[in-house]
Amino acid sequence: MTFIDSILLAVGLSMDAACVSSTNGLAYRPSLYTLLKFSLFFGIFQAIMPLLGYAIIRCLAIDISSFTPYIALIILTILGAKMIKDSFSKDENNLANAADQLTTKLIIIQAIATSIDALSVGTFLTGIAIIEMLEISIIIGLTTFIICILSGILGTKIGKPFNKQAEILGGIVLIFLGLKIFIGS
């Protein structure tokens, strides 16, 4: 796989994480620290998952790709529904602490949900050498990190005037993203 192929693969894989990053920016308006934190988590998980898929196929010869759309659908639908539900329980005048709801636990769950497709990709790349797989995974992780920072900033800028509606829209986006992954498989 060429460097350009790896970049294109990385950009394609990072789109789910970018969507969730912009949704996080839109709904939670995170601080720079939190923005970097979720971008880093998304990048790390996007880098690890192809390696995990690669290892599962190489070592165990188990094809898990048929299960991954179901997992992504369930996790993203639950996260989206929770985001919508939480938006109705917030006091319209007390939205300053919205970023506090973007916990490390929630970020990890989002990172897992958005990197499930990268797990599947790793199962298809078992014909390449481990060193090349490591290089591809690093490119995927770095690309995802950069794209998530940019998407999170964009979401934050767009979300400021919308308050509660931004969180509802964010929840809807997560649910549709889960459906897209499920239907696209």
Backbone shape = globular
Write down how many β-strands occur, each being a DSSP E stretch of 2 or more residues: 0
Average pLDDT for all residues = 85
Instruction: Give the helix level as a range of percent.
Output: over 70%
**Cα-atom radius of gyration:** 17 Å
Alpha-beta classification? mainly alpha
The description of the largest β-sheet is:
none
Distance between the termini: 23 Å
Please give the count of helices.
6
Q: Helix and strand succession?
A: HHHHHH
Residue windows where pLDDT falls under 50 for at least 5 positions? none
Report strand %.
Answer: under 5%
Task: Briefly say what this structure is.
It is built from six helices and no strands.
Task: Detail the topology: elements first, then pairings.
Layout lengths: L2 H26 L3 H29 L7 H22 L14 H21 L5 H30 L4 H21 L1
Structure report:
This protein has 185 residues and is mostly helical. α1 packs parallel to α5. It is globular. The chain starts with a helix and ends with a helix.
Features of the shown structure:
0% strand, mainly alpha
